[in-house]
Amino acid sequence: MSQKKFIAQLAEQKNKTFSAIPDTELATLFIDDLFSLLFLPATLRQQNHYELEKAFESLKSHLSTLVYEVVKDGKAAQTASDDFFSELPGLYNTLQKDAQAIFLYDPAAQSPEEVIIAYPGFYAIAIYRFSNQLWKQHIKMLPRLFTEYAHSKTGIDIHPGATIGESFFIDHGTGIVIGETTIIGKNVKVYQGVTIGALSSSREKATGKRHPTIEDNVIIYSGATILGGETVIGKNSVIGGNMWLTKSVPRNTIAEQSGITQTAKTEH
Hints:
Blueprint: H1 3-17, H2 24-39, H3 49-71, H4 74-105, H5 112-118, H6 120-136, H7 141-154, E1 157-158, E2 163-164, E3 169-171, E4 177-178, E5 183-184, E6 189-191, E7 195-197, E8 213-214, E9 219-220, E10 225-227, E11 232-233, E12 238-239, E13 244-245, E14 253-256, E15 259-262
Parallel strand pairs: 1-4, 2-5, 3-6, 4-7, 5-8, 6-9, 7-10, 8-11, 9-12, 10-13, 12-14
Antiparallel strand pairs: 14-15
Helix pairs in contact: 2-3, 2-7, 3-4, 4-5, 4-6, 6-7
């Protein structure tokens, strides 16, 4: 094949494959600007109501442009952006609870503000929550770009389709993987190197629940692997480090390498 024909083939393939994918650099710029506006110290241009309102309107326009590249419909893109920003106050309040949980349970944290500014776990949770909102609005490609960007920065891989309750605690975080159909309750603590994944990656099972359910108040220590869509880790349980689980664990259980113990404990 001549170079001219090969270049024509590449051009055709790129146009066909990437026509519904937004610009990656613009996507990462949006998510960093959103995180900065919500959580980082105010710049000189963002110290009053008027300037903040201008920044929000700019971000809404930016998101609408990104969504348009996916849906190719101006009205739908604007509606998606408006819907996202209408949910933003609730996402912000949930993230404040996440930051408070990290501060409460990590003795090294000096303040919730330190958690917000310096902790990769909080950043990954924030990007996940923004991405999950768009995922629920049936905008799929853009959230994947956002969470993969957070993954590249933090080493924490949370699929935007996962369902995660409030007061979510990630400590250190490097190597954490949380799959698409995972359901995580409230007040769950996860340490580095934890995998909450699928037993099978076959295409035939892609539409079912492939990942575990983690109920409220569970602690999962470093290196644990929990797999399977039917696997449920019961409320108030503790999963020890380096455990490999493909079966459910009852409520109020301590699962360690040495065995499984039932407790009367009701909360952490």
